[in-house]
Amino acid sequence: MSTRIAFLKGHGTENDFVIVPDPENTVDLPPAAVAALCDRRAGLGGDGLLHVVRSAAHPDARHLAAEAEWFMDYRNGDGSVAEMCGNGVRVFARYLQRAGHAAEGDLVIATRGGVKTVHLAKNGDVTVGMGRALLPEGDVVVSVGERSWPARNVNMGNPHAVAHVADLDHAGDLYTAPSVGPAGAYPDGVNVEFVVDRGPRHVAMRVHERGSGETRSCGTGACAVAVATARRDGADPAVTGTPATYTVDLPGGTLVITERPDGEVEMTGPAVIVAEGEFDSAWLEGVLATTTTG
Ligand SMILES: N[C@@H](CCC[C@H](N)C(=O)O)C(=O)O
């Protein structure tokens, strides 16, 4: 029997998501279903999917239920699972506010990368406590075609390789993933950021995301870029004792990232719900049947 399944569409600096509210975790979303929903021609379209589930109802978040009522079960556009999505958390919070599950002010959201603190400001901005960046030792190299750049390995819950480049066009069309070495540096894949300077504590970037391709913004990527750039600039807050704030321009908008002396990274940016509707479960079952039978 076919049923109607509710969804919304939202974006944060044009990193866009299909949102599936499913408090009791009753909607089956295998990778092929997520990929079909995120398909921009045959589906609803999105860089990723935000499955909105009560923490208590999801096996990956049950242990966090006492701390955070809601779990962001984030999936990339190809259906793969990722630990964290910075733009996604802001949009997730905006959805909770719209649905009456959260009010302006502070809230917490469980993710696979831990519990995140979120502030929904009156002016529409959303600030997320992203936790600490990890900077694993070891040289990393990013290559596109004939060009290669040394890069910084930054983990924001999910993996990033940040390359400072002379010109963002040198990253090419990014239709395929850049190569990142040495082999084995990122056993689970990596998000790759290309960065140029725009002014003092002001950079611009492009990103190729694991599981989604080039996107118009990446929140964890912007945080990784700010942290890597602060290290390059000799502005490590743990050393200077003062916060380092970077303005990060992305193709889809601007994010402001602050790293504090205690290592905590905060990200501020917009979050917008664009539309809401329903899709037919029969459509999705049909797509899945075709995928399974080839
Ligand atoms: N766009 C996101 C990051 C989404 C996850 C990423 N593609 C991964 O696989 O780690 C963001 O805003 O952080």
Automatic annotation (TrEMBL):
UniProt entry tagged with the keyword Cytoplasm: yes
Top EC class, one word: isomerase
Gene3D superfamilies: Diaminopimelate Epimerase, Chain A, domain 1
Pathway assignment: Amino-acid biosynthesis; L-lysine biosynthesis via DAP pathway; DL-2,6-diaminopimelate from LL-2,6-diaminopimelate: step 1/1
SUPFAM superfamilies xrefs: Diaminopimelate epimerase-like
InterPro entries in alphabetical order: DAP_epimerase_AS (IPR018510), DAP_epimerase_DapF (IPR001653)
Active site annotation, chain numbering: C85, C218
Reaction catalyzed: (2S,6S)-2,6-diaminopimelate = meso-2,6-diaminopimelate
GO terms of molecular function: diaminopimelate epimerase activity
Main localization, broad class: cytoplasm
Transmembrane feature ranges: none
Compartments it resides in: Cytoplasm
Keywords, in A-Z order: Amino-acid biosynthesis, Cytoplasm, Isomerase, Lysine biosynthesis
Matching Pfam families: DAP_epimerase
Residues holding substrate: N15, N76, G86, N87, N158, N191, E209, R210, G219, T220
Oligomer and partners: Homodimer.
Record family assignment: Belongs to the diaminopimelate epimerase family.
Primary role: Catalyzes the stereoinversion of LL-2,6-diaminopimelate (L,L-DAP) to meso-diaminopimelate (meso-DAP), a precursor of L-lysine and an essential component of the bacterial peptidoglycan.
NCBIfam families for this protein: DapF
Name under which the protein is recorded: Diaminopimelate epimerase
Organism: Streptomyces parvulus
